Amino acid sequence: MWRLRESTHPVLTDEGGALLDERTGRWTQLTPTASAAVMLLLAGATEEEAAGQYATRYGIGFEQAAADVRAVAAALTAQGLATTDPVSRRSWWGWWR
Predict the structure, then answer these.
(1) Number of CB atoms found within 10 A of residue 28's CB
(2) Virtual CA dihedral for 56, 58, 64, 65, nearest 10 degrees?
(3) pLDDT digit string (tens) for 3-12?
(4) pLDDT, tens digit, for every residue of 50-61?
(5) Which of 22, 51, 64, 84 falls 20 to 30 Å from 70 in CA-CA distance?
(6) Which SS3 state, helix, strand or coil, does residue 28 take?
(7) Beta-carbon neighbour count of residue 11 at 10 Å?
(8) What radius of gyration do the chain's Cα atoms show?
């Protein structure tokens, strides 16, 4: 499942958005369509479900929508802002590290 890393904080709207990487202090700006793709993916949808909703939202074919959603997910993963790894469970005593 695709998700943002714990150190990545989103600010997403229909007009665009940005992601803050707290490890580096850098912001990554998102276009409105990239922001929509991230919102759909974060809503718990699979890439396929997100692509279907994206296609409906923008009135485009499913194949193009799937390619767009995959491109956004891959770009953010390559930048280290997102991951497909399962959520790590921290032990309760690890809070002080």
Answers:
(1) 16
(2) -60
(3) 999 999 999 9
(4) 999 999 999 999
(5) 22
(6) strand
(7) 12
(8) 14
